[in-house]
Amino acid sequence: MRFHRVQVVRRAPHPQRGFTQGLIVAGDAVWESTGLSGESALRRYRFGADRPAAQVLLPDQLFGEGICAVGDGIWQLTWQDRVALRWDAATLTLRERVRYNRAGWGMCAAGDEVVTSDGTSELVRRDPATLEPVALVHVRCEGARVRGMNDLAWSGGQVWSNVAGTACLAGIDLATGEVTDVVDARAAAERHRTDPQAIMNGIAALAAGGEFLLTGKRWRSIRHVRLVPDRDRGHRERLLAGLSH
To answer: How confident is the model at residue 240, as a pLDDT?
Structure first.
């Protein structure tokens, strides 16, 4: 197992301090899914901008969750509504609405498939065209289940996950479910002592290997971070410690 900490390369504004549930990036364009019933949205902005260039609100009854890009579209999950939405990435117009078989948390495009989480220790591999389930992956860290799989990103041939309720990231071998990398991301965290829901959530892989955008629910900033090798400083214990959403 490899251990890392994060080095903050750059901080940028978090437009409208969204209740972040999903984050993806292409070049300097960022798409963000925000949650809360009656407030959920899909936004697009340039990294470094202080306000969205485009935004679409979800119907009041839907709670937005993870997103991923497939072709020229963006899939967006909803939390407990059992539906997923597919948007046009350029115009943010709705293309289709499909039934979805689990609670929605995070998702990412992983090669020729999509991977989703639901806050448990399970990831689901899915058909990218329909989101129909193909296979189930049980996430383990040296035999222990890793609960709280949240927002997901794909980088370096593996899935990277925010672990809900912690300031940890897990790098996961999708073929086995084994955690191969544990990241102490506390250097990128914000303190929100009066808001227990303001946890780290939102991870997007950048083109450079080992570099990501990280943010959290209602955070003031988005951080561009780089992974730096580290020794185990209680990384594993923190990874297994917390779960909230």
So the answer is: 77
Task: Look up residue 11 and give its two tokens.
Answer: 């901080």
Q: What is the pLDDT of residues 167-178, one digit of tens each?
A: 999 999 999 999
Amino acid identity for residue 112 in this structure: D
- For domain 2-239, give its CATH number from 3.10.105.10, 3.40.50.150, 2.40.170.20, 2.130.10.10: 2.130.10.10
Our CA angle for 41, 43, 46, nearest 5°, is: 165
Domain boundaries, the chain: 2-239
Residue 191 burial class via C-beta count within 10 angstroms: exposed 0-12, middle 13-18, buried 19 and up: exposed
Which one-letter amino acid corresponds to residue 116?
T
User: What tens digit of pLDDT does each residue of 69-106 get?
Assistant: 999 999 999 999 999 999 999 999 999 999 999 999 99
Amino acid at 192: H
